[in-house]
Amino acid sequence: MTTQILNASQMLGHGVLHAFYRGNRYHCLFLKATFDWVADGLMLPATEPMPLHLNDLFIGENKEYAASFERELAPLLYPTDLTPFRPKTDVVLIGDAVAPEGKPQREWLARLKVGTLQHGLHVTGPRHWQYSRLGGWTLSDPSPVASVPLDYRFAFGGARTGVQGQTDYFEANPVGLGWLDPQQLDRDQRYPAPQLLLPGERLGAIDQTVSVAGFAPISPFWAPRSHLAGTYQGEPGYPDDFDLRFWNAAPEALQAEPLLKGGEWVELEGMSPAGIERSRLPTYMVWASVDTGGARPRLDPMSLDLVYIDWPKRQVTMRWAAVVDEADGARRIAMHATPLDRSHRE
């Protein structure tokens, strides 16, 4: 039996039939909407919303250097809208950290808060490791800067030459800075250090490993997500050891459990010359009407599983999702969304 899936809302939406464990199939439904971050704590429906992305979108993809693009190494910009299920709400942000008042500083704190969920970064200007006979490898003071991209290319990680001459990549961030082996370094050269750290973490030695710090989504090819993908043996669907947490792309500190509902206040610090910026997530009632042939359709709530902040555009994209078992025998599924904020109804 073919199930008819309808988008009865004003949002962008889609539904796909997806095979999970042992080939069991589910209708995976989602609606997404983009909102402009405006003054006085308001977010209003965007005049230019984000389109649907049916594949993961990576930094550097479809750009002038696409011929040398390597998907497995590239930072993830936006996770596919066809993500079938997220156990937690992902909160992610792309943009720049901006020094207080926009004036160059050596270091400052960038902080993202949504409801009770909070995560911070220690941001520094450029600095480097350099060698001297008396002091060995020492870290320079940061140079003052007005902004730093909140990009994993500025966090800890990178690549280095292995013992057999091969290129080894730091599995949690192959494009970062500071993953160094002092035995392989040229003492006449300087080596850049990461500019994004977790608050409280400090670099004390050139061979020290620190956390990969950021607000951006994590690539499915990088740890820790790659460790959750399971062991594929060629069977259809997902392997038995596939972990559904794989679909959460946000840093662990920015995965909300219980799920966010909408209406939470969003607070950004260290990302605007104006200081702390605040606004509130819109509130919607979102559901799927599932007609299985009974007297009345079943009403399944759709859960908010993504809050994506594109700070350069001052936009927030939200996604709501639900999963309906194909075994339920649904004839028709209709997705609905009703704004609960008065400003969104007018």
From TrEMBL:
InterPro entries: DUF2169. Pfam families: DUF2169 (PF09937). Residues 23-320 form the DUF2169 domain. It comes from the Bacteria. This is DUF2169 domain-containing protein. It comes from Chitinimonas lacunae.
